[in-house]
Structure to design on (669 residues):
């Protein structure tokens, strides 16, 4: 039955685009064919259409098999009624919220929400929501999605975000507003590497049904990562590819869209263009720093009326809550480069004027040094001011708890300083009085500013920009971070003031400069040929031209049927996998997981334990892993198939996080 539905869907789909994907041999062989936009669109459409059909067949096969195993018919649901119900509930709650809170900033949020509601009536396309940080994009975009879904009978609403920390927070908000409980996941699938779906019924039937929903993304609302989104289109493995067809006839909302990995940018644009032009998908790009994706080589096909907020400059002024202060030069206009001691001294000095301070720095090493320098200063008055530290060396469960503690201290009005890597700068609902940010890309600076005076508690919060000593910060190998920092310094050298960094025109200029500098890295290189060439047929064009010169007609038909899907799947990887996962004995749960994995030899139990262990995993680069393994801080716990599972010694996790043997037995809190 599911096969029949898939083929019916395929026939309806193919009829819409049959005329659009006709390939003309003489056009392909033309020496200018690779510059012909229409030919490239046809070639791209042919590639993605084959992926769509493959996805339908995979999902049909797996769904029928699971339904047969459960002795049930596949469930084909129309979500329109559900979206209608959710939309009414959300609008009702938003109106009640606005009635109870008539503050200026909340009224501005309400205006943006209404504008998104009106924009949801437009036909499907690619739209932008260039809303300031703290403007309520999560609920605003949800309102947009629900209304458009009920009006145009869309299958799914899919949220795509760059960081797991944002997903966890946004998922809780969505569940709270739609299901009245932040822990109620009914109709809402939170899908990423650190989550294991919790169900009350542990029966095999429930587990199989849950796995089916996860694997196919057959849920009304899905909240997932950019990595998972790109994998569903390009990655190897049938588990990934069976989700692709569910991106069509849906709504895809990208939050912090500027975080698309540079090497995947062309492939991302091609995929999104296909979803708009052929997949009947409505796409919304949300961010405070809208990237100029229409200015790159593979241009994003934005709608003419793509921007939802009508007057960005006026919007920017209304939402101005911070003042950027340039500390990259001294009062005499001489470049100022700070080391970790000087940065700590500056933060210490400002702690006399501000109750809550957040410092964000680009690398773990310099973050840890600044924290250590500050700790020496505050040891004697630790009862008066709390000093906290966050880094990506912490396992997700540890980070989540520490962030929660930091936010509670800020909300309670306690004196607190938090020193962190960039993990806190996006999506975390924090409102510090003052923020220090080491220079990085403009989008990162704006995101960091979004953690300052978020709810307009002060007239203006202060955001200090610091140029850290490269011998301590070590960003030379972080190409995108270094390029972003260089472009920000260039903007400042051209006379653009730091306090103009929230201006939409400045943001556009920055991204044009940034993408221009990184133009050669927007392609996904492998084996001397860029992967996106396997989508748009440039590789085919070159091979066909070569064959035509030889007049070898016997190979011509074979080449025209060439598909790059297998090659792309073989090499595509959003994040280079040069890390090893190590289980941390964090808290009672982490210690128990290690004990259970160490003593359990049942393969099915091991699989479930490994899934539950994801929030307690730290991913270490090979050189760091090898160092700790040789020192005995990491040991082999067990083996699952070909995968070796490692764990930290009881003392070694704190040693990694704090970097100071004297502090191993101490807690930050």
């Amino acid at each position: 039955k599911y096969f029949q539905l898939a083929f019916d869907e395929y026939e309806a789909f193919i009829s819409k685009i049959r005329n659009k994907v006709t390939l003309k041999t003489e056009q392909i062989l033309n020496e200018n064919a690779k510059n012909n936009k229409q030919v490239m669109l046809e070639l791209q459409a042919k590639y993605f259409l084959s992926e769509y059909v493959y996805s339908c067949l995979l999902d049909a096969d797996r769904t029928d098999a699971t339904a047969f195993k459960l002795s049930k018919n596949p469930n084909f649901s129309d979500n329109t009624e559900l979206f209608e119900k959710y939309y009414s509930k959300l609008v009702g709650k938003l109106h009640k919220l606005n009635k109870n809170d008539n503050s200026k900033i909340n009224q501005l949020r309400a205006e943006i929400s209404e504008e998104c509601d009106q924009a949801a009536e437009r036909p499907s396309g690619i739209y932008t929501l260039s809303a300031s940080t703290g403007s309520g994009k999560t609920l605003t975009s949800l309102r947009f999605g629900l209304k458009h879904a009920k009006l145009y009978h869309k299958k799914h609403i899919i949220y795509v975000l760059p960081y797991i920390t944002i997903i966890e927070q946004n998922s809780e908000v969505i569940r709270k507003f739609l299901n009245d409980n932040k822990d109620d996941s009914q109709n809402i699938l939170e899908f990423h590497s650190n989550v294991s779906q919790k169900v009350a019924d542990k029966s095999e039937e429930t587990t199989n049904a849950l796995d089916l929903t996860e694997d196919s993304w057959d849920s009304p609302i899905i909240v997932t990562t950019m990595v998972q989104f790109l994998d569903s289109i390009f990655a190897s493995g049938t588990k990934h590819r069976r989700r692709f067809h569910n991106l069509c006839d849906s709504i895809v909302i990208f939050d912090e869209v500027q975080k698309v990995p540079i090497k995947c940018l062309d492939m991302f644009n091609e995929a999104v263009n296909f979803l708009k032009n052929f997949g009947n998908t409505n796409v919304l790009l949300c961010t405070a720093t809208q990237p100029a994706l229409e200015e790159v080589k593979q241009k994003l096909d934005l709608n003419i009326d793509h921007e939802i907020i009508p007057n960005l400059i006026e919007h920017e002024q209304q939402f101005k809550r911070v003042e950027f202060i340039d500390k990259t030069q001294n009062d005499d206009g001489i470049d100022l480069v700070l080391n970790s001691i000087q940065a700590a001294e500056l933060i210490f000095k400002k702690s006399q004027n501000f109750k809550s301070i957040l410092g964000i720095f680009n690398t773990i090493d310099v973050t840890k040094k600044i924290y250590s320098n500050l700790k020496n200063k505050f040891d004697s008055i630790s009862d008066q001011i709390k000093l906290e530290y966050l880094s990506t060396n912490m396992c997700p469960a540890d980070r989540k708890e520490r962030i929660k503690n930091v936010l509670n201290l800020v909300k309670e009005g306690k004196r607190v300083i938090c020193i962190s890597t960039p993990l806190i700068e996006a999506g975390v609902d924090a409102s510090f009085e003052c923020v220090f940010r080491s220079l990085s890309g403009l989008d990162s600076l704006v995101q960091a500013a979004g953690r300052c005076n978020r709810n307009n508690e002060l007239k203006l919060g202060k955001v200090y920009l610091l140029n850290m000593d490269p011998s301590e910060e070590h960003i030379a190998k972080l190409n995108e971070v270094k390029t972003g920092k260089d472009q920000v310094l260039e903007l400042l050298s051209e006379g653009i003031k730091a306090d103009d960094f929230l201006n939409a025109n400045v943001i556009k200029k920055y991204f044009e400069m940034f993408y221009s500098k990184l133009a050669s890295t927007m392609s996904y290189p492998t084996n001397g040929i860029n992967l996106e060439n396997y989508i748009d047929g440039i590789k085919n064009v070159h091979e066909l031209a070569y064959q035509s010169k030889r007049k070898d007609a016997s190979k011509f038909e074979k080449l025209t049927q060439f598909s790059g899907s297998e090659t792309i799947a073989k090499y595509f990887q959003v994040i280079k996998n040069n890390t090893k996962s190590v289980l941390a004995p964090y808290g009672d749960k982490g210690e128990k997981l290690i004990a259970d994995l160490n003593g359990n030899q049942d393969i099915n139990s091991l699989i479930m334990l490994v899934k539950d262990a994801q929030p307690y995993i730290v991913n270490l680069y090979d050189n760091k892993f090898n160092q700790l393994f040789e020192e005995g801080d990491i040991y082999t716990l067990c083996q699952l198939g070909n995968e070796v599972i490692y764990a930290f010694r009881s003392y070694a996790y704190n040693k990694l996080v704090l970097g100071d043997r004297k502090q191993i037995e101490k807690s930050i809190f």
User: Anything to note?
Assistant: DSSP finds 27 helices and 18 strands in the chain. The first strand starts at residue 126 and ends at 129.
